[in-house]
Amino acid sequence: MSHRPPNPFPGRRSVLRGSLAASAALALPSSVGTAPSFALSGRPKAQWGVQAGDVTTNSGLVWVRSDRPARMIVETSATESFRRPKRWHGPLLGADTDFTGTVPLRGLPAGEQIHYRVTLADPDDYRRTGEPVPGTFRTAPAKRRQDVRFLWSGDIVGQGWGINPDIGGLFAYEEMRRLNPDFFLCSGDTIYADGPLSASVTLPDGRVWRNVTTEEKSKVAETLAEYRGNFRYSLLDENVRRFNAQVPTITQWDDHEVVNNWYPGEILTDARYTVKDVDTLASRARKAFSEYFPISTLPSTGEDGRVHRVVRHGPLLDVFVLDMRTYRNANSPGRQTDDTNGILGAEQLVWLKRELARSRAVWKVIASDMPLGLVVPDGATDIEAVAQGDPGAPLGRELQIAELLRFVKHRRITGTVWLTADVHYTSAQHYDPSRAAFKDFAPFWEFVSGPLAAGGFQANALDGTFGPDRVFVKAPDRANVSPMESPQYFGEVDIDGGSGELTVRLRATGGAVLFTKVLQPGRVGQ
Fold this sequence. Notes:
Blueprint: H1 12-27, H2 36-41, E1 50-53, E2 59-65, E3 70-77, E4 86-93, E5 100-106, E6 113-122, E7 125-129, E8 133-138, E9 148-153, H3 172-178, E10 183-186, E11 200-202, E12 208-210, H4 224-233, H5 238-246, E13 249-251, H6 278-292, E14 309-312, E15 317-321, H7 346-358, E16 363-367, E17 377-378, E18 382-383, H8 398-410, E19 416-420, E20 426-431, E21 444-448, E22 468-474, E23 489-495, E24 502-508, E25 512-519
Parallel strand pairs: 9-10, 10-13, 15-16, 16-19, 19-21
Antiparallel strand pairs: 1-2, 2-5, 3-4, 3-6, 6-7, 6-8, 9-23, 11-12, 14-15, 17-18, 20-21, 20-22, 23-24, 24-25
């Protein structure tokens, strides 16, 4: 397996300088640490950094947030000197999108490093511009022989563990940045809107955890402004802004973007909430989510869109991003013998089968915001994910997954790998019909990684319906272990352009590789 060096091209330093300048602007008054012309003029500032998303062979999205109304302008170039740049005129950023905006870039060269910079212009005088903020990303390769590397994880700022300056903030992002992936797959729970932060928490060993706090993170999010503030919170951390300026993302959501274990139509009984209608909360959260991440299918204007999508990353890889939250039925004990809606909804299942059948990529990564064979409870009797603990024939939401797995087998769709987060530990499960109650499917792997910046939890029980074998697991022995006490986890995927082999590594912060699995291309089951 060939590997690119950690920093394969010059010019990375200029990206980092831009990110550090943005972090200084967040920490200091606007008149300190900036050039006098900007400090005195009141020009727009992009203090929250930049980020790119949903990058393909010839396209990508670039995001920014302004501190006031501004016109967004993006320039791209093959070099960091921005010789002969191409200019892209973006939207007018205003209060209707919380001063965020995204510019789609099309017609980009494949497999190339793209340097970009975002400039914010005063809408009343375009000559009055803020300081450009630089970023970079690599487009997907058009040729099979070019390697692909990406990372995945999820579960960010959860269970009361926020940005702690004593441990270097959200330090996992810096470790991931140094690996120089082509992109980062964020597998959901990008915020914990239902998890307020306190200024300090005393750990079991007597040490004190300190959180950076904000007004919006002081209570559960209910208003649009509170949801927006939750999405802004991670951007206070310079590790995150540095990472975003270098690594494009593919982002999905799960429950904590809204409220724990939510489903459409739910009415809350949680006394912390004055708004009890989950559909109202979900609508507000979805708008804020669409404003703060560059997602190709989800505009920030309030128009119809969707989280589920395919991001095509060249001939070696298609990423199928699922939405197991928006279309699911109500959480229940999961013992139904007929369940057409399931966890995906009928229409999303049709979409997924169609797109999997159309895919010509060597590897088809199914980005699932919840695991398949791990029992994730919701209270004493209900089930939050797919598996419900009965190892027999499929019931409840398992019926929909059985239909999908049967389809993959009978259509002889090769190279499917499931990646997920959600459960706050890391593990590898191999599913095989020889061990299963339901046998009409081909073997496959599911890899779990997380949390990225949240509490760690014990391993969940397995459900035998699809025959999972837990080949590897690393989890705490008690609930809600802080990032000060236990490593955080993320996964790495390398696809070799020559052999087509896919290598999965489950990583812990601190540099350890905990588990490695090499998969061969062109097989229906592994």
